[in-house]
Each structure stands twice: as C-alpha cells, then as structure tokens.
Give the backbone structure.
Amino acid sequence: MKPASIDLREKIVAAHLERHHSIRTVARMFAISKSVVQKLVKQQKIEGNLQPKKPGKPRLSYLTNAEVELRELVTEHPDATLVELCEFFADKTGNWVGRSAMGDALRKLGLSRKKKRKGVPKLPLRES
C-alpha cells in the first residue's frame, strides 16, 4: 500500500493541532485509524516533517563485513559443515549466526561447500 501524500498528512495534523479536534474525531473525519493520527502528530512534533518512512526494518548481519574471518574459517576447516562453521564463527567473533545466513554469505563470497575429492575415481553407471 502506498503511503498517504504529504498534503493529506499535513491536513490530518492541522485538523488536530490547529483546529483542536480530538484524535478520534480526526480519525473519523479522514476515515483512518486513531493510531495513524497519533503517529503523524508525534512525527510532526519530534522530527518536524511528515515525510513517509521507508518500510521495513534494516536487516543487520554479523557476516556483512566478515569476509576475512569467513575465508580464514573455510581455509582452516575445509570439510566443515555449515553448522560447524557457525560454531567456529561464534567462537572466533562471539556472534552466533544461523546456518542459512552462513550459507548465503559463503555463496556471495564464491566459497563452495561441496569439496572435490582428489584421487577418487568416478564409478561407472550400471546398466540394467
């Protein structure tokens, strides 16, 4: 859903602050919820503007700037599973990350989890 226009936001806040209507009355006048009116009035008082905020929360990860640590872990433990790498990362940095986050970070760095086994011949397929 698109955020309300700045003009509409200004009218909502003005109805409460300048015309001294109650928040519930303003909500009924504009057919919006009481919490939206409260949020807009608070934003105007604190921030001094009524610009819509970006939706969602920022996703922060301990792996964002940990390229060096991840490369070291994979070098030290080449056959470790994702769960083991998570444990090693937690021991090294003190920050626990999930298995899927570890897999995504390794993929972004181009570090493969599947190891090539050297010297092991491929078995031919059986014919039935």
